[in-house]
């Protein structure tokens, strides 16, 4: 089984278009919404028109671009530890600086604001994950996110083995195998590498975080990662990808099943595994 999740939904228009196309015409199964981004309102409109598309909230503490920016949803004076010396969100290249100074109470304020915007728009997310932070980047941020997921009835993406083990001890379902981030694949032979990974997909549940974009002039002007996004979109919507899924009998799934298990388990005390919930799908 494979979750193919389109990250960064809402960042800009060419990503929004590619995300929808990769789900409706390609092999992607879900997406994750970046609520603070300029095109998040458009993305939420697209989701309201397509209630069949499952989506998560891509909790965002970073801004990827210098000439096309966004800030926190929370008033800046309330979350100063999340901002750099210029009073702006850090870039992904500055992960260590953010993690060194971010106060957990201010992270919670911003994360909660992002979740509440989505719920206030009448949408029903399935899970929480993070933009540019593996498992939240810090153990306390991960634990905070799991607590928010329990509160709101959502699942959480767990990437690294320590976090997966922590969730398994609570009886919560997580992926069984290494997590793939498409930004880590070499551009030179990417299509062949994707095909190879699909043909070698192990039994159990795997997740891919992909980042489709159209690669148009807008993308090239504002996004240094546009080639990654264009090549993702090209493969996800290719006949080859769908044919390999058929040949290898791969079931493409999403976080709805995990969310149901998380919701069942959240009725139990934190730290106590649910006796009737399997540790993984």
Automatic annotation (TrEMBL):
Pfam families to which the protein is assigned, alphabetical: YdjC (PF04794)
Record keyword Aminoacyl-tRNA synthetase present: no
Alphabetical keyword list: Carbohydrate metabolism, Hydrolase, Magnesium, Metal-binding
Region (Disordered): 262-281
Swiss-Prot/TrEMBL cofactor(s): Mg(2+)
Taxonomy, superkingdom: Bacteria
CDD domains for this protein: YdjC_TTHB029_like (cd10802)
Alphabetical list of InterPro entries matching this protein: Glyco_hydro/deAcase_b/a-brl, YdjC-like
Keyword Coiled coil: no
Entry protein name: Polysaccharide deacetylase family protein
């Amino acid at each position: 089984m494979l979750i193919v999740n389109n990250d960064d939904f809402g960042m800009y228009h060419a990503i929004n278009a590619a995300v929808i196309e990769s789900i409706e015409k390609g092999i992607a199964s879900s997406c994750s919404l970046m609520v603070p981004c300029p095109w998040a309102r458009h993305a939420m409109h697209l989701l309201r028109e397509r209630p069949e598309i499952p989506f998560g909230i891509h909790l965002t503490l970073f801004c990827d671009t210098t000439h096309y920016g966004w800030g926190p949803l929370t008033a800046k004076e309330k979350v100063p530890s999340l901002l750099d010396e210029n009073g702006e969100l850090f870039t992904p290249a500055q992960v260590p600086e953010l993690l060194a100074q971010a106060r957990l109470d201010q992270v919670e304020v911003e994360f909660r604001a992002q979740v509440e915007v989505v719920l206030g728009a009448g949408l029903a997310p399935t899970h929480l994950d993070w933009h540019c932070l593996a498992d939240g980047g810090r153990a306390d941020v991960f634990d905070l996110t799991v607590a928010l997921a329990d509160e709101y009835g959502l699942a959480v993406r767990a990437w690294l083995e320590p976090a997966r083990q922590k969730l398994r001890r609570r009886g919560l379902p997580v992926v069984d195998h290494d997590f793939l981030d498409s930004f880590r694949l070499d551009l030179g032979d990417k299509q062949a590498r994707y095909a190879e990974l699909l043909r070698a997909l192990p039994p159990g549940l795997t997740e891919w975080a992909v980042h489709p974009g159209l690669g148009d002039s807008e993308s090239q002007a504002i996004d240094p990662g546009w080639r990654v996004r264009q090549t993702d979109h090209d493969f996800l919507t290719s006949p080859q990808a769908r044919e390999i899924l058929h040949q290898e009998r791969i079931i493409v799934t999403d976080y709805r099943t995990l969310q149901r298990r998380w919701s069942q388990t959240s009725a139990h005390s934190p730290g106590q595994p649910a006796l009737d919930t399997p540790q993984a799908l």
